[in-house]
Design goal:
Elements lengths: L1 E3 L11 E3 L33 H7 L3 H9 L5 E4 L4 E3 L4 E3 L3 E5 L3 H7 L2 E2 H4 L5 E5 L5 H4 L2 H9 L3 E5 L11 E7 L2 E4 L2 E5 L2 E6 L4 E6 L2 E6 L4 E2 L3 H48 L1
Parallel strand pairs: 4-7, 8-9
Antiparallel strand pairs: 1-2, 3-6, 4-5, 6-8, 9-10, 10-11, 12-13, 13-14, 14-15, 15-16
Length: about 270
């Protein structure tokens, strides 16, 4: 069984995916029957079930670290697998990671998707993680669709090092409606970096892992594991410093006690 997506305007090709999660056809939204001015929510497309996002995005906590770094949580959206729609085309794309500024994340979550019409602009950044079933579409037809959507930056991460994509890491910047490759720097055989102007971060492929480097602080954004290790190290430092203070205080108290003993002994001797 396969599920065929709708055609883009002016494009006679259909994209074909394995039918891992049956996906409903999105219809032009209608206002709710209760007479309110609220629009119905987008259909539920279901999560990817090839384990790529849990392994390469969620396990290390990329959404959490990016939200913490970018700030402005009430107007900055950092979410995985959010459908991006144009009502007029009834066509949806669901990037593995989407970042948008100056939007209402709560409303997007409530609507179950990102409407290009409602938000008045595309997201600033999308990223796809290569999977065995959809990798070729990521760097061909999805690349074309994201350009049509007007998304300024499109990145692709291949944890296999280029066996699914043609490169371990690739980024595109939209210039006059056409994606142009972002220059990458190969640090060594196991590290490849490129700069995201939209995030002001370096996107890194390192030993098969996705990393983010902050040029301002000259540090990586911390994964969940690194953050836990840093907290544990800080707690060990705190305990060691507290122990040293207690030891110093004990030594001081012991010294004061000894001084008082000597003074008392001198008084006794002086009195004899």
């Amino acid at each position: 069984m396969i599920d065929k997506l709708k055609q883009l305007p002016g494009d006679d090709r259909l994209e074909v995916f394995p039918d891992l999660n049956p996906r409903p056809i999105f219809q032009t939204p209608a206002y709710l029957a209760d007479g309110s001015d609220r629009l119905e929510v987008f259909p539920d497309f279901g999560p990817r079930n090839d384990m790529q996002n849990p392994i390469h995005l969620h396990l290390d906590g990329h959404q959490t670290m990016l939200v913490r770094h970018l700030g402005q949580r009430e107007t900055t959206m950092v979410l995985s697998e959010v459908p991006i729609f144009w009502y007029s085309s009834r066509n949806a794309r669901i990037p593995d990671l989407t970042i948008a500024f100056n939007v209402n994340p709560a409303a997007i979550i409530d609507r179950n998707g990102y409407s290009l019409e409602e938000n008045g602009k595309p997201p600033e950044f999308v990223l796809e993680v290569a999977s065995p079933t959809t990798a070729r579409n990521d760097y061909t037809r999805k690349r074309e669709d994201y350009a049509v959507f007007g998304i300024p930056e499109y990145w692709r991460f291949d944890p296999t090092g280029g066996r699914r994509y043609d490169m371990p890491l690739a980024g595109d910047r939209l210039v006059d409606g056409v994606y142009q490759p972002i220059e990458l720097v190969r640090i060594d055989e196991e590290r490849l970096w490129g700069h995201s102007a939209m995030l002001n971060l370096d996107v890194c492929w390192e030993y098969g892992r996705l990393r983010w480097w902050d040029p301002a602080t000259q540090q990586y954004l911390q994964t969940h594991e690194e953050e836990a290790e840093a907290r544990a190290a800080a707690e060990q430092t705190r305990l060691a410093e507290a122990s040293a203070r207690l030891a110093a205080e004990a030594d001081r108290d012991a010294a004061l006690t000894r001084v008082r003993e000597l003074e008392e002994e001198l008084r006794r001797r002086g009195g004899t």
